[in-house]
Amino acid sequence: MNDGDAADWARVLQGDSAALTALFDRHEARLFRHAVRLLTDREDAKDAVTIAFFELWRKRASVRLVEGSPLPWLLNTVSNAARNLERSGRRYRTLIARAPRPEYVKEHAGSDETGVLAALRRLPAREQSVMVLTVLEGYPEREVALTLGIPVGTVKSRLSRARARLREAMTTLEAS
Fold first, then answer.
1. Quick one: which of 32, 9, 35 has its CA closest to 22?
2. CATH class of 3-98
3. Which of 35, 90, 116, 131 could in theory staple to 162 by disulfide, Cβ–Cβ 3.0 to 4.6 A?
4. Is 116-175 in the same CATH topology as 3-98?
5. Alpha-carbon gap, residue 20 to 35, rounded angstroms
6. What is the per-residue pLDDT across 3-20, written as a single tens digit (0 to 9) for each?
7. Sign of torsion, CA 146 151 153 159?
């Protein structure tokens, strides 16, 4: 019996997540080696260990300890998680293999230089970047200012100019 496991387990039962962290630090390497033996992908092995500790926390009230340690329960849970991950990976690969292959679609000879995207591309780079980040990507003006290293007022003025230019371009496009 590991005295550290027993003490940490008593704290885990009381909802102490730091004790779970201590158990993780103590047993993660051994559980990972176990998972690597069962799985072909190291990332899946990491996932299996993570799943085991998540389940340990979730089911802590019903976990059966062996000689005061949750390690045997964790090893069994890693084995089950590895089996499930391998099975789901196999299903995924089968599904992808059965999926119809898209037919090659020849690119258009030239790009369409009309419309909103063309008008956006014709904006000066500074206005274009503000427009893309705020309007297309949905970032708040304050975050755009931080990202671009400019004041918020500058973001607002560039955005206003960009909108006016796009509005003018769309009016011209609709008139033609």
1. 9
2. mainly alpha
3. 131
4. no
5. 19
6. 789 999 999 999 999 999
7. negative
Between 124 and 1, where is the model more confident?
124
Q: Partners of 69 in the beta sheet?
A: 66
Architecture per CATH, domain 116-175, reads as: Orthogonal Bundle (1.10)
Closest CA to 126 of 162, 166, 168, 165: 162
**pLDDT above 90 for 40:** no
For the chain, what are the domain ranges? Answer: 3-98, 116-175
Average pLDDT in the 94-115 region?
Answer: 70
pLDDT at 110: 54
Say what angle helices 71-98 and 17-38 make with each other, to 10 degrees: 50
